[in-house]
Structure formats: structure tokens, C-alpha cells
Amino acid sequence: MTKKKRLAVFASGTGSNFEAIVNACEAGKIPADVVVLVCDKPGALVVERAARHGVKTLAFVPKLFPSKADMETAIADFLDENEVDLVCLAGYMRILSSTLLSRYGGRIINIHPSLLPAFQGARAVERAMEYGVKVFGVTIHYVDETVDGGRIIAQRAIPYEGEDIDELFGLIHAVEHELYPATIVRLLAER
Ligand code: GAR
Fold first, then answer.
1. 53: annotated active-site residue
2. Helix (H, G, I), strand (E, B) or coil at 53
3. pLDDT at res. 155
4. Regions of the chain with pLDDT less than 70
5. What is the position in ligand 1's atom list of the atom closest to the CA of 112?
């Protein structure tokens, strides 16, 4: 039997995508285990979710590290110790630098709530709505040192012409929770 792959999820907030990925692993839909959560906000809801699922967590306050390089070295060491195969960023609101990318480059993916390269960065959905966009979307891509840059792996369009931002977020999350696990399955099969 082939060894199950080991996933890390990085998140900063609510963690609904974390939950979707963990649930898919627990249900056997993703042939992998989420072995660690990395979180830069110790009080975030995602930390509670990880505890409920028994997922080991590295939660830290970034400014307590002398530098970003020190912080990312600690993260990469933690990933090494836990033999992580693939890193999934899910609402992790930080740009990665070469310290982490030199050790895990090509093995880090991210989900973003827009049809990239449109609306990179924070408040993507709000900004798209303010712009009058009629087709929203979700993108999953490899991570490089740029904000929501890196080669695109999967995308799904979400037509929406209403003005209810909460309804739109609901549609986007529903797509994310299906597309992220499905894309992880595809990537693991290709590896
Ligand atoms: C998701 O919608 C994800 O696409 C977005 O943060 C949200 C996290 O939600 N990521 C970005 O904006 C990355 N630039 P969650 O905490 O409920 O999974």
C-alpha cells in the first residue's frame, strides 16, 4: 500500500477551507491526512477547528520573531519535522519569502477568491463587486514570492449580478469547499 500523503494547511482566520480539506481527508475523499495547521493568529477560529480534529498546530505571533526569515525558518523546520508533502494556503494572509519557498517551492498552493490575475490581494471580492464585476470566481495556484501570483492550477467562474455581498461570499465559499479538495486530489494523483 502506498504511504498516505501528509498535508499542511496554513490559515489566518475562520478556517472554513481548512475544515473542508480536513473533512475530505477524514471521509477518504482525499488520499491524505492534514497533519499540521500553521496559523499566524493564535486566537483565530481555525485553531479551535484544528483542536477539534486533533490536528497538530503551530500558532505564533509574527512580531515575536526577530525577522521574517527567522519566522519562516521555524515554519519550514516544523514542516520538515512533520514530513509534510504538500502545503495548502487557505486564507493565510501573508506573503511567503525565499526562506520558505527555497525549501518548499513547488509544493505550496493557494486559494484566492477571484479569477486571477484579476483582483489580487486583500478584499478581492469586495473590490470586484465595487468594480461592477458580473463574473466572480475562485482560483487555485502555485505560490511564488508575489501577491496571489504563481502558475494557475484550477479556476471556476461564478456568474453573479446581485448586490448582496453575503450571498456572494456564500456562493464563493461553496465553490471553494468543493474545488480545493478536488484540486488536491488531482495534484496528489499527478505526483
Ligand atoms: C477564502 O475565501 C480564501 O479564498 C481567501 O480567504 C478566505 C479564507 O476563508 N484567501 C485570500 O484572500 C488569499 N489572498 P476561510 O478562513 O473560511 O477558509
1. no
2. coil
3. 98
4. 1-2
5. 4
Helix (H, G, I), strand (E, B) or coil at 153: strand
Contacts of 129 (CB under 8 A, 6+ apart): 163, 165, 168
| 45: its cell numbers | 477560529
> CA–CA separation, 31 vs 176, rounded Å?
19
Cα(163)–Cα(157) distance, integer angstroms: 17
Model confidence pLDDT, tens digit, residues 155-182: 999 999 999 999 999 999 999 999 999 9
Q: Phi/psi of residue 145, each to 5°? A: -80, 5
Alpha-carbon torsion (109, 49, 53, 173), positive or negative = negative
Scan for cell 461564478, then name that residue. Answer: 158
89 C-alpha to center of ligand 1: Å?
9
Hey, what domains does the chain have and what are their CATH numbers?
5-190 (3.40.50.170)
Return all residues near 66 (Cβ < 8 A) that are at least 6 apart.
none
Residue written as cell 501570483? Answer: 149
Q: Whose CA is nearest to atom 2 of ligand 1?
A: 113
Catalytic-labelled residue, pool 53, 112, 173, 177: 112
Q: What is the pLDDT of residue 1?
A: 58
